[in-house]
Amino acid sequence: MPMDKIIVTVMLIIGGVVASFAIFNGVYPAVERGGQAVSDSVTVVSDRIRSQVEIIHAAGSNSTVDAWVKNVGTSQIGAIQNSDVFFGRYGELSRIPYGDEGSALPYWTYQLEGNYSFWGQSVTNRITINLEEPLPQDNYWFKIVLPNGISSQTSFSME
Questions:
Q1: Of 61, 78, 120, 140, which one has the greatest count of Cβ atoms within 10 A?
Q2: Calpha distance 108→83 (Å, rounded)
Q3: Does residue 56 have a pLDDT over 80?
């Protein structure tokens, strides 16, 4: 075999190896990111499937509304203060911000019933909404949306 054919063959082999590495280095990170995205999506969906709350009772008195919300799912609910609480007459719901006694009205707080430090399975959470003025007799809606998007709502009457 002449020397020029050997050189051309070696150059083609080297070029093929370099091209293979270039393709691998370009494709592998994209495949890895895609796999991580799928894994993250599965975690989020799993959390949503295992999360569920049910409003047991809601009632108002003067300028406060209390709603007892039970964790009927199988997962622990974290960052309760990041939940969204909505309250008002039908068609006039307003988002109520989370707060404490020093916050501007209206605001909501929570208290886990019993000696619990986290909102685990079968634990009831008492949500209290503090309003600016007493509620007139009417029908009202209460809705809670957890940080992961799971929600529950109910209506009640002030009589």
A1: 140
A2: 10
A3: yes
Q: Which of 130, 51, 41 is nearest to 85 (CA)?
A: 130
Give the span between the Cα atoms of 153 and 90, in whole angstroms.
12
Alpha carbons 159 and 153: distance in angstroms, whole number = 20
**Identity (one letter) of the amino acid at 26?**
G
Cα–Cα distance, 136 to 138 (Å, whole number) = 6
Residue type, 27: V
Structure tokens at 93: 């719901």
Q: In terms of DSSP H, where are the helices of the chain? A: 3-50
Task: Give tens-digit pLDDT for 61-105.
Answer: 989 999 999 999 988 998 999 999 999 998 899 999 999 988 999
Amino acid at 78: G
**Cα–Cα dist 18/21, whole Å:** 5
Q: Give residue for tokens 């959390």.
A: 47
Give 75's contacts (C-beta < 8 A, 6+ positions apart). Answer: 47, 50, 51, 121
CA angle (66, 67, 73) in 5-degree steps: 155
- Please state whether 17 falls in left (phi above 0), alpha (psi between -120 and 50) or beta: alpha
